[in-house]
Design a protein that fits this description.
This protein has one domain. The chain is mainly beta and 133 residues long. The longest helix has 7 residues. This is Microtubule-associated protein 1A.
């Protein structure tokens, strides 16, 4: 198991309001710096692979059940988000997402700010995508 977790830096100190339960999970992380504060994460029967990612999650409640998530070379920042995914297969590889002129999307962004997102029974695959808004 130590070979799988080579170069992983995870800061989980008891007393930081973190409750993590993982059952029957296969998790592989390589060269990642993951910081989670005040998070309640429950993963059951999940296979998660992240490579060369910088993930910061603060005040997040994430529940993932029977999901297979693969992220490569991604930089993900989520703050004050409530995300629930059930029975989803999400794969993103080599994606370039750029958002410019956010002021034009202000009404949309404010309506989505601090929103609860629930995705159930979806299969989302993005490969070699370039999305510019």
């Amino acid at each position: 198991m130590m070979d799988v977790l080579t170069h992983l830096q995870v800061k989980l100190t008891p007393g930081e309001h973190s409750d993590i339960t993982m059952e029957h999970s296969d998790i592989t992380t390589e060269h990642n710096d993951i910081t989670m504060e005040h998070s309640d994460i429950t993963m059951e029967h999940s296979d998660i692979t992240t490579e060369h990612n910088d993930i910061t999650m603060e005040h997040i409640d994430i529940t993932m059940e029977p999901n297979d998530i693969t992220m490569e070379q991604s930089d993900i920042t989520m703050e004050h988000s409530d995300i629930t995914t059930e029975h989803n297969d999400i794969t993103t590889e080599h994606n370039d997402i750029t958002m410019e002129h956010i002021a034009l999307l202000w009404n949309l962004m404010t309506s989505l700010w601090n929103s609860d997102i629930t995705i159930e029974h979806n299969d989302i695959t993005m490969e070699h995508s370039d999305i510019t808004m």
